[in-house]
Amino acid sequence: MKRLQENRIDQISKYLQANKLDPELLPEILDHLACEAEESLWDGQAFEQIYQDMVKTADAQTLLNLSVDHQNLLAMEKSLNDIVFENRNKSYGAYDLRKGYGQTVQRAVVMGVAFFLLLVMFPKLYARLTPDPKPDDVAWLVEVNPVNIKMEEPPVPPAKEEPAPVQKTVKALTPEVLPDNEVEIEELPPVVEDLQNAQPSTATVDGAENIDVIAPPVENAPAPKAEVAGVETRRDETFTHVEQSPQYAGGNEAMSAFLRKNLKYPRPASQAGVQGKVFVQFTVGSDGKIENATALKGIGFGCDEEAVRVVKMMKDWMPGKQAGVPVRVRFTLPIAFQLD
Amino acid sequence: MENNTTSNEYVRGTLKTIVLNLLAEHDRMYGYEITQEVKDRTGGAIALTFGALYPVLHKLEQDGLLLTESVEVDGRLRKYYSLTHRGNETARTKTDDLERFIDAVRLLLAPKKLATE
């Protein structure tokens, strides 16, 4: 099989292009002519000769006719879009959209109208599809069993025994005749005139009249209450908080003067340089006496004992009072030991 | 040349049917192949010119009856044509139509022959 060389093919191609053949047709015509030429080569002809023949058969007029024929055949269905998109990229998408525009609009209109009609007609359609209930329609069946109904006998109301109307009567017994020893003599209470000159007694005694009898006062008469109800104070109890705190006679200043005068700094404490507070707890009795003095918390070195000793020396406290009554009160006194 | 132009006149009307019919017999063909096939079968009585064939092929393609497929052969593009499903149906109906038409034409031409016999 003889093949056309590329330059020969180019030659034919250029010839076709020079005659302004439709580019859509060009590759096919080229192939066609090339095939023809190859066959002629096969028959032993020279290419120059073949080319001359080719140009003779496919002369300028023939090629022009071909292009025009082709255009006319295809242009039958050419629309405005084809003219607009001539020599433009049709595969881009706008061409398809334009081409399908008519159909799309048509479809959209049909669908829109159908939807609108459906929307408008829906109530009527629905009413038509659901039949009206007829008056003799049976909604649902209920099986009914015969029920045996017994007449219940009404309870007989108990006959009310109405008391028969009683006539007004007065006790009037017929006097009974009895023998003398059986007759009871009724004792009637003494009349007012009898009591004017005699005292009531279990028996009637014929005594002396006008004796003044002074009856003693009844012993269990209620005594006036001295204490206010509800605020009962017990003297034996020891309070920690009272309405009126106990106080050293002469006030706090007198007490601190007393303490200053009597307190002696213990030697071991002053040697050790100990200072601080000793809390002495004691009880102020309802009579103002100091009892049970102890050091609650101390600093040691003899300070505790010294503090307790001085506290015990104190007298003349004014007792604390609860509801106005002097009571025993527990009292804590801080005593400060301070080195100068 | 005289003979050739008259045959071309008839070919013009039947060209579509001929092309579709040929493609129905083959899987795929290219333009030159079709002209060769026609030439071989008719003994050169009908010669398709490229000027007539290619516009018809393009028209059929535009109508959706043909599929095309370009293959590079010997340094040039060769366009193969094959029938679509619709092209197959059209080929059948067109062939039937043409056969009926030929029969009718025969009937038109026949009486003379009968009379002469």
TrEMBL record, chain A:
The keyword Protein transport applies. It is found in: Cell inner membrane. Residues 250-340 form the TonB C-terminal domain. InterPro entries: TonB, TonB-dependent_transducer, TonB/TolA_C, TonB_C. It is a single-pass membrane protein. Keywords: Cell inner membrane, Cell membrane, Membrane, Protein transport, Transmembrane, Transmembrane helix, Transport. The chain crosses the membrane at residues 108-126. It holds the Pfam family TonB_C. The keyword Electron transport does not apply. Its main location: membrane. NCBIfam families: tonB_Cterm (TIGR01352). Belongs to the TonB family. This is Cell envelope biogenesis protein TonB.
TrEMBL record, chain B:
This is PadR family transcriptional regulator. SUPFAM superfamilies: Winged helix' DNA-binding domain. Residues 19-91 form the Transcription regulator PadR N-terminal domain. Pfam families: PadR. Signal peptide: none annotated.
